[in-house]
# Entry
Amino acid sequence: MNKSYKIDFEPVGLRGKCMPGISLLECARTLGVDLVNLCGGNGTCGQCIVQIIEGSVSCLTKTEENFLSPDQINQGYRLACKTIPLSDLKVSVPPDSLTTPQRTQVESMDLPVVPEPLVKMYDIEMTAPGSNDLCSDSRRLINRLKEQYNINVLSIDLDVLREMPVYLRDNNWKARAVLRENKIIALGCQDSRLAGIAFDIGTTKIAAYLLDLNTGRTLASKGMMNPQIKYGEDIIARLLYAQESQKQALHIREILSNTLNQIIGDLCSYAGLTNNDIFEIVVVCNTAIHHLFLGLPGKSLSLAPYIPVTDSELDIKAEKLGLKTAKGAYVHFLPNIAGYVGADHVAMLTALEILEQKGIVIALDIGTNTEICLLNKGSLTSLSCASGPAFEGAHVKFGMRAGQGAIERLRIENNKVIYKTIGGKPAKGFCGSGILDIFAWLYKAGIMDRTGKLTDNHPLIRKINGINHFVINIKDQDKSQCFEITFSQKDIREVQLAKGAVRTGIQALLKANNLTEKDIDKIFIAGAFGSYIDVKSAKTAGMLPNIPSNRFTQVGNAAGLGSRLALISRSRREQARYIARQVEYLELAVFPDFPEIFAKSMYLDS
Amino acid sequence: MNKSYKIDFEPVGLRGKCMPGISLLECARTLGVDLVNLCGGNGTCGQCIVQIIEGSVSCLTKTEENFLSPDQINQGYRLACKTIPLSDLKVSVPPDSLTTPQRTQVESMDLPVVPEPLVKMYDIEMTAPGSNDLCSDSRRLINRLKEQYNINVLSIDLDVLREMPVYLRDNNWKARAVLRENKIIALGCQDSRLAGIAFDIGTTKIAAYLLDLNTGRTLASKGMMNPQIKYGEDIIARLLYAQESQKQALHIREILSNTLNQIIGDLCSYAGLTNNDIFEIVVVCNTAIHHLFLGLPGKSLSLAPYIPVTDSELDIKAEKLGLKTAKGAYVHFLPNIAGYVGADHVAMLTALEILEQKGIVIALDIGTNTEICLLNKGSLTSLSCASGPAFEGAHVKFGMRAGQGAIERLRIENNKVIYKTIGGKPAKGFCGSGILDIFAWLYKAGIMDRTGKLTDNHPLIRKINGINHFVINIKDQDKSQCFEITFSQKDIREVQLAKGAVRTGIQALLKANNLTEKDIDKIFIAGAFGSYIDVKSAKTAGMLPNIPSNRFTQVGNAAGLGSRLALISRSRREQARYIARQVEYLELAVFPDFPEIFAKSMYLDS
# Structure
């Protein structure tokens, strides 16, 4: 009875053996499948839904009957936490049951470059030393690399020197040398793969990609929350936390590196690799996360005029940052531009090949801070605007992150509200794209005027405590429960500030370049939120300029793509450096007419 | 009564304040004067002799009367451990009372180069950032270095970045940037000096020099025993010790780095500097010490054919080696040549400017291992011969290191033995130079034949346990005590092996170059032992070839000089690298006719 079962999770492609008696949720954890499980496997959240495709499992529980529709039950859907495998299984995981891909956008894309990694692996064979061949181990290796590959080795990592004599003799004078440019950083073993990880570390979320550096293929990807969030949703709070003491600065570094190590471990085990196969890491993030991670003091970054300690690209030993990789591996940080325009912006511009674009081009990534870049005749101007967390669900009563049950699409037809939630789950609130839709449709339906004021007399509007609220009645179909979620005049003002900030940034860039909206040839919208919005709603809401929709392109997680490009291509890394130095930074706070532009940007349909 | 006294130690030039009631030995320790004190200040070794020049001290003790002659007492000599200052003092320290300079040869020499250090310090002034000048701290610094000094900074140490924001603001945007080539490795403070330390780490002794990198001046020097000696006088024993476990390998590294830290601290406090003023370290040592210090496995080095892990020059962060210096400082290791021809040999050749020499030149440093180099028409051949520790006093019954009471000179005239001891102390045994004299004079006096056999019938020879012994009667003049020290036929054989090995090396080099002794234009004899020997005796003993004495030059601690040159001059460091790669290594063990050459070399007057 101690025979283990083979469990195959599709379409994520994770498979492996699990001991009998443990739940499918446990199996999933073991194999690195990140099932949503808000309740910790207690059967109270009903989120870890999977479909049994092949094989037999334990009987359906009462708990599951409560969460699953009869249709779902007929199709073999189960809650993973309540299901025990009784044979080998093939299990299908619906996208909504994964914590990861939902709206973090770590999905693999084919990379549009020929792999040209900074780190390379070379197999060589040497002759053993003897009394007529007394050359040192290191010189033997160096000479052979020169003879066989015409490489000039300039240095060897001390840790490599320390393991080299035993390694060479144990491997019969065959070696797999790992070079980073002209430095030998590691000695691989016979089955070691040359892999690297690209991290896109956001204020809220972390996206990570494990790449084969030889083929450029993305072997695995993973999303996770940034654990530093517990010290503040906004970055200033975290910078202040770190400034309070050395201990706190170290702690906020360590919780991040611990999470990164967890991700490294998960990605490696998913791809059948070990940490020792990771020879290079690229990190892109905003300037504040960059400083927190590197242990750079954040005081000048947290106070106007927000001066970063450094904006240069950096190569730091992974070991020095507490990351568990091959010993000689480095972490490459893409350059920053300013205190609030970080390497993630540089990575986005790199991924978009911004300098290859024609005409007047705008690229933006909307988040708590929105960074916007304008390309005009080969010159780049970037700025950052504090758009705030309204689109992440904060400061809006029924706002929520883009998780299950969030209204992501909404329209109003004949005074009826039609909406769609993520995962088709009962509506719990609005995520960013839904909020933008509400905004646009309240205006289009004549329920809200251009200034954002809700009308007093409308069936969808109700006064609560003297304040107008847009009210949506939610019916839980199966249980005929009925409740309401609302969007108040106060919520509208929050969103107006957020969308107004984004629009202000665009207008300021145009003005600084003596351009108008009509001149814009293309707008790239990057990032998780930007990828899911309805561009028409964004135009109606006045967040984005009212230009033809075919001039907009939603490009997904361009920063993540940029980080992967920098990981596998030296020339793209070089381009990132070049772009970063080309960008002229515009400080919005000191921009002339800022208040006037901002006021205008608050309007709808502007 | 709590007033402190000012104590001035001359000629070492160390002075400072000491609290009343503590002994002069304690004062000396506090001020960094290294008085010999084998007994730990108990008054039983009688070695910490000093002379009171000015001021008043506590009364003479019985102990001192036992150790000092009436003449010495009249001249104000005292034992420092038994003498308490009663006023400000001026104290003269005889050379023999210092642990340091005796025969370690760390004495300062003017260096024949213009300082051209790899590490330089630049004072710059920046303007503070403002809302119209948002450039990052690092770029501000980099730009200013470019403007003011036309330096292209390529990178900044992470630790520097971490301290930079506070530093720049606290110093009102003035900075003293310390660069190593194009990397900023530290930020100095207003009174920081740009200093470095050159270490010549021998198997037995360590010589250290503190240099001002701007002026090239040697500010202080110090000698100390290599603490690793407790794990074996010979280097193979230490390599084996380190191979036994990771823990032991770490331990033997740490006791060395602890001692080096002690030396760094002592040198700094002597020169009024702090560890943070030390921005560069150069280390020269033999290949085995090099491997032990760097934590490189020594197995292949301890077994024939003695393959080193690496022979390349290395730059390692001082921090990584546990050395306490400025945080960003590096340790530069000069390159090695072979398992038994190390960086100390390279340093010697560099100091001698070997490639600038004319004619056929031999340079050698005699020790437990003797490294010899031959220059012939611009090409260099080096080898190592295992001369053993006989000249260090080991394996010879009355052999001793070159300390007080060692017979360092000896001659035999009319069957009378005339000798001189180090420090004029009662003879306790022979040091290397004395042994060589005995050897030469026994032969010249006809007491020993060319093969090294002692005659049976001679007043200076006595059979003890059936073996002939050369006997010296020692009279302690003051106390009319009389005892004898001896040099037996067995001792002679030991010395024959030692001196024969050196001579074998010379002969093999000549033979490999198709030369004979007559062709030699110059022989440089380096090292502590080599500096004190009587060249005539060395020739008579057959250790050195019998060529005119004016072709010999005793050059002192050339390896130490080479280490200092490499510390303050990039081009001399570059030369060292070049020399190391020019040297062809000759493996004596596989040299044709080795046994024959060796046998011949054992003879005297050969």
User: Anything to note?
Assistant: Chain B has five domains: 5-99, 119-188, 195-333, 347-389+496-601, 392-490. The longest helix of chain B spans residues 246-271. The longest strand of chain B covers residues 467-476.
